[in-house]
């Protein structure tokens, strides 16, 4: 048995999109197989989307299953891909995305990019979560000086001289699995680009590797940089390996994430039926 999918990516952060009505007996197992870049289709996760076009703007219910089989409450680039998918099917330029981290609005810009609201970032240790009595700003954890923030998912953000000089695959896992993070954390590093923006690299929880782009990570870098006085730009340009993202802030200090989305191709993926007792 197979189910159809559409492959989308936002600045290299790529996802298989499967309609939530499709019968998938084990979503976690399918993600582990299909996301594998050697033996599967290859992706940073599977987005299960349910479209509710009767609303104005249309609504999309989004569930992200990551390559390790876990479910992530939020994904900035994934939500932008979900928005493009929904806009393609409804002929609209605005949609609402229901995620486990809240309901967010997405809009198509005049140049064709997708902008999504990212809610309110928090430095509250209980909401990140991190085992700390106070907010964590530039404190050493497993050898790296990090600031902790939750932008829908937790991020440990560190500023370095040059992101290309860092062995991220070596330094990130000890932080990602540090005892102070009861639910783990993403690890994002940033270096200034000379014009108020930053170069970005992110090791993603659930992918368990560096990705070409991370939307929540880009927002985390921009939020932390502004909080620490490292930039006063708006928008803040953040450049992961896969492209350029722009993080803006409204009058309440909430962030939006803007960047391109591309529909790569369509296909079908095999679904294993559960073994009968």
TrEMBL record:
EC number: 5.1.1.7
Subcellular location: Cytoplasm
Catalytic activity of the protein: (2S,6S)-2,6-diaminopimelate = meso-2,6-diaminopimelate
Keyword field contains NAD: no
Record site feature (Could be important to modulate the pK values of the two catalytic cysteine residues), residues: 155, 204
Complex formation: Homodimer.
Assigned GO CC terms: cytosol
Keywords from the UniProt entry: Amino-acid biosynthesis, Cytoplasm, Isomerase, Lysine biosynthesis
Pathway linked to the protein: Amino-acid biosynthesis; L-lysine biosynthesis via DAP pathway; DL-2,6-diaminopimelate from LL-2,6-diaminopimelate: step 1/1
Active site: 75, 214
Gene name of the record: dapF
UniProt keyword Cytoplasm, yes or no: yes
One GO MF term attached to the UniProt entry: diaminopimelate epimerase activity
SUPFAM superfamilies: Diaminopimelate epimerase-like
Function recorded in the entry: Catalyzes the stereoinversion of LL-2,6-diaminopimelate (L,L-DAP) to meso-diaminopimelate (meso-DAP), a precursor of L-lysine.
Chain residues that bind substrate: 13, 66, 76-77, 186, 204-205, 215-216
Record-stated family: Belongs to the diaminopimelate epimerase family.
Entry-linked InterPro entries: DAP_epimerase_DapF
One Pfam family matching this protein: DAP_epimerase
GO biological process, one term: lysine biosynthetic process via diaminopimelate
Enzyme class at the top of the EC tree: isomerase
Protein name: Diaminopimelate epimerase
Location (main, coarse): cytoplasm
Lineage: Archaea, Methanobacteriati, Methanobacteriota, Stenosarchaea group, Halobacteria
